[in-house]
Amino acid sequence: MVAIAPLRWLPRALDPFNRKASPSPLFDPGDFAPALKTRLLILQPTPFCNIDCDYCYLPDRQSTARMSVDTARLAAARLREDGLLGETLTVVWHAGEPLAMPVAYYDEAIAAMAEAIGPECQVGHSMQTNATLIDDAWLALFKRHHIQVGVSVDGPQALHDAHRKTRQGHGTHARVLRGMSRLRDAGISFHAIAVVTPDTFNHADAFYDFFVDQGVTEVGCNFDEAEGLHSQSSLSGHEPAHAAFLARLLRRTTLDSRLRVRELAMALRLIGQPLPKQSWKSRHWPYNAQALPFALITVAHNGDFCTFSPELLGQSSVEFDNFVLGNVTASGYLAAAGGQQFRRLWAAILQGTEACARQCAHFNYCGGGAPANKLYENGDLASTETLYCRTMVKRPFDVVLERLEQRDSAPRGSA
Questions:
Q1: Which of 65, 129, 195, 272 has minimal Cβ neighbours within 10 Å of its Cβ?
Q2: Which helix (H) or strand (E) holds 190?
Q3: What is the spatial distance between Cα 43 and Cα 50, in angstroms, rounded to a whole number?
Q4: How far separated are the first and last CA of the chain, in Å rounded?
């Protein structure tokens, strides 16, 4: 059993936000406009992972526990029972390594979920995988169910193998490349998610060229966040280098459109079209699934569930009972909203969102940040700016905006 790292709480006496201990008012889905719907259902079929990345935040990665098909069915059925289904729903199979489960499991689970949800909602499935286990059976499954595939790969071998290793300490890059090659040969498109570190910043062109050479059309640049078991990020003290890295990637994408960098593309889109608004009673915010109850729901292998940031579920917390709000085998999602635990959690997140609205110039492009990062970095869900905010929202936005301003001010005909 892997020990769960304790969360870092600010002492109440030092709470800079003067939080009140009272929970939020009773939850009523009818207080939201547009109507409250779940857009993203994250299922954690197993905590087990067949490799051992040194920046992983998840506990119990050696556990081989598995989600039953009936639990997956209930996770979907509860959405319908609670009226949380909209026109579309994305189901993401995540957590440990989803391909550590049998192929037959997904055939059964996807069919059971489709029956539970019914034809009124269009459901799409997605898997995030390290690609080391991909074979012909998995390729057939991806095609059979039109599953969107994301591959976790950090770029060139030296960057990737420095962190993504087997349990015996060997690099996994060659195995990941084989998996990506299988996907390409089968005609299955896929995106990539890379974890960038200060070492990556020194090799922006090699990083970009790797994904172009691999036929990847979109890459997301995550970083080693301070979450859960991973208590410190390597980006601390290297933020100017990250800005230069983003600027170089933006320059490359401007000259060569074969690769889309998720953070830069998102910033460009938001500059032209800010986030849609979500209202709760008299309060209005930009839509942010991580700060909106039940817009995003995460279900663990045993049926435990949480809403808000998916990284919260199962992490150690005395105050919030490890962020487990309920279990799909016992009740629906909205039943949890009547409990004191949910009300305390939501009250703190509301305070953090309102503080961001008052203080942050980027609020209309973010909607209040990620509660999990506020907690892990600042020790308080009601806090504001984080390294995550600066890295994933503010710097990409500012880099793109600066580039647009330079282009508009440049003499006609210049680059």
A1: 272
A2: strand 190-196
A3: 18
A4: 57
- Which CATH topology does 34-337 take? TIM Barrel (3.20.20)
Please identify which residue in the block is written with the tokens 């598995």. 66
Domain boundaries, the chain: 34-337
Three-state secondary structure readout of 328-341: CCCCCCHHHHHCHH
Amino acid at 65: A
Q: Write the pLDDT tens digit of every residue in 365-384.
A: 999 999 999 999 999 999 99
Distance of CA 158 to the CA centre of its chain: 25
Q: Is the dihedral of CA 98, 100, 106, 108 positive or negative?
A: negative
The kind and range of the H/E element at 3 are none
Chain segment 43-99, per-residue pLDDT in tens:
999 999 999 998 887 777 889 999 999 999 999 999 999 999 999 999 999 989 999
Which segments within 259-373 are labelled E, that is strand?
A: 260-261, 277-280, 283-286, 296-299, 304-307, 326-327
